[in-house]
Write a structure and sequence with these properties.
Elements (H helix, E strand, L loop, with lengths): L1 H10 L2 E5 L2 E5 L11 H29 L17 E4 L6 H9 L5 E6 L2 H13 L6 E5 L2 H6 L8 E6 L6 H9 L1 E11 L2 H4 L4 H8 L9 H18 L3 E11 L2 E10 L1 H4 L6 E7 L5 E5 L2 E4 L9 E4 L17 E8 L6 H13 L7 H13 L10 H7 L16 H8 L17 H4 L25 H9 L3 H9 L6 H18 L1
Parallel strand pairs: 3-4, 3-6, 4-5, 6-7
Antiparallel strand pairs: 1-2, 7-9, 8-9, 10-11, 10-14, 12-13
Helix pairs in contact: 2-3, 2-11, 6-9, 11-12
Bound molecules: zinc ion.
């Protein structure tokens, strides 16, 4: 193995170090993106918390089942295997980092369709000495996942980080994750998801995207509903743990469970989105509802129902314009607050483990501050722009603290507002196109220097003495042969001298 390592180092084009992994690349054909370090760090933080929880849950379940059998399974993590599939592995960097940095992993499969990529992964597995955990696979990602859809063959974690749209992998992925397992999905086709091409978004994700200031959150919610719809086809459903938009991509972490009854709740987690074409006001129209329906036999029974609509009138109540219709989007919470807090705590307790610890800390803190029950949002500059007003700073908008402003603004307007054009607003001079403004400054613009009437002879002779001083100096130094401007200046000074002598 030592022989192989040294050969690898000689041949490698470049070496990449990230986290505890070191990757040698022999060819430029294998894709490595350094900007995604944050994505990988975040995934490692999430998986570290997830695997610990997953093992504890499964152990508790196992213990419950074997209550009468005397066993010591309590602290034996080996009894709960944790397997990860990295379906589109490229360099293998992510798998190698998972193997070295996420505790309690039993096995990782690093798959890629490219033979070159698989060879690189294999070499790097040996280079990083993780052959006991990682296996390589040279296969079509979907085919590989379909081979693992049997409940006994499923993975605990599947990580999908494709270049572009992940939707073609979702059908196989949702079938191949264990119950309570985690699916990690990245999407980088932001133009499609953010409303530049709503029809393409529909063909790929089954939802219409809209151009709005909150398009990145909407992109997350479109991806989440897309994963859910794939899962529902197989009697499975998802629970989002963390969803973020960063740099040029979005990334979601969802748990996948089986349960046909829970699939009935899906429509109550989805909404269509009405967006006013005038003022961008957003109104959600839920696709379904789910309410308590207790009976004598079953007091905890719940029932699905159809909500009524539409949620908006024909015209917007704010600006009298019509609406666009987008969605469906995932309108239920996109994070699990408790889980996010645990991941944040993990990062804060181990900042040395992550190259991007500061950013992780910031992003996760912000996620925790989000309002979980208020999908989408508005941006002040757009709202103020619509009414042609200067934008207020965000903090000033919080008016409750300012009794004067809040009182003034709480009054009904007593002035009659007339927005028709006033005839006298366009004065005759302007209408006739008269020359109303001054000329633009020309060279030597300005009042000029003060007339030196009482200049004494001494001073004047000094001025004459200094004529061409620079020019002569430069000529001596061979810098400049001739300057017409200097002659011009000379003439001016002569003229001035003559005038003043008179
Ligand atoms: Zn409107």
């Amino acid at each position: 193995m030592k022989m192989e390592e040294s050969t690898l180092e000689i041949k490698s084009l470049k070496t990449i170090k990230e986290g505890q992994a070191e990757i040698c690349l022999k060819t430029d054909k294998v894709f490595y993106n350094p900007v995604q370090e944050f994505n990988r760090d975040l995934s490692i933080a999430v998986l570290s918390v997830f695997t610990e929880e997953f093992i504890a849950e499964k152990l508790a379940l196992k213990q419950k089942k074997t209550q009468n059998v005397n066993s010591n399974i309590n602290n034996d993590n080996n009894q709960i295997p944790v397997t990860i599939l990295e379906a589109l592995s490229a360099t293998g960097l992510r798998s190698i980092r998972y193997a070295k940095e996420v505790p309690n992993i039993s096995k990782i499969i690093a798959n890629d369709l490219s033979k070159d990529a698989v060879n690189t992964i294999q070499e790097n597995i040996i280079h990083n000495n993780v052959q006991n955990i990682i296996e390589t696979s040279h296969d079509d990602a979907c085919m590989l996942m379909y081979k693992h859809k049997h409940p006994m063959e499923r993975f605990t974690v599947i990580d999908l980080d494709p270049y572009g749209c992940p939707s073609i992998f979702l059908d196989s992925a949702v079938q191949s994750v264990q119950d309570g397992g985690l699916l990690l999905v990245t999407a980088t086709d932001m133009a499609v998801l953010a409303g530049n091409s709503p029809e393409t978004c529909y063909s790929k994700y089954g939802a219409i995207s809209l151009k709005t200031k909150c398009c990145h959150e909407m992109a997350l919610r479109i991806l989440l509903q897309c994963i859910e719809s794939h899962a529902n086809r197989y009697g499975r459903y998802t629970v989002p743990m963390l969803s973020i938009s960063a740099d040029f991509y979005i990334r979601v972490f969802v748990k996948v469970y089986s349960g046909a009854i829970h699939c009935k709740k899906t429509t109550s987690k989805l909404s269509m989105v009405y967006q006013c074409v005038g003022c961008d006001n957003i109104t959600l129209q839920p696709l379904g509802g789910f309410k308590d329906n207790p009976t004598e036999r079953n007091p905890g029974q719940m029932k699905a129902y159809l909500p009524t609509g539409p949620a908006v009138g024909e015209r917007c109540t704010n600006c009298n314009q019509k609406h666009h219709l987008g969605g469906p989007i995932w309108s239920a919470p996109i994070h699990d607050e408790v889980f996010v807090s645990k991941v944040l705590t993990h990062v804060q307790e181990h900042p040395d483990l992550f190259g991007t610890a500061k950013r992780l800390d910031g992003v996760l803190s912000m996620v925790r501050e989000e309002l979980m029950d208020a999908p989408l949002y508005y941006i002040l500059d757009k709202m103020f722009g619509r009414v042609h007003c200067e934008t207020m700073p965000m903090l000033v908008m919080r008016l409750e603290a300012d009794p004067v402003a809040s009182h003034i603004l709480s009054q009904d307007t007593k002035t009659v507002i007339d927005l028709s054009e006033r005839a006298d607003a366009n004065p005759v001079s302007r209408r006739d196109g008269r020359l109303r403004f001054q000329f633009n400054p020309t060279p030597y613009w300005g009042p000029g220097s003060r007339a030196a009437i009482n200049v004494g002879d001494d001073k004047m002779s000094k001025a004459i003495k200094n004529q061409n001083k620079h020019k002569n100096k430069e000529r001596r130094q061979g810098k400049r042969e001739h300057s017409p401007r200097s002659d011009e200046e000379t003439r001016k000074i002569h003229a001035k001298t003559d005038d003043e002598n008179i």
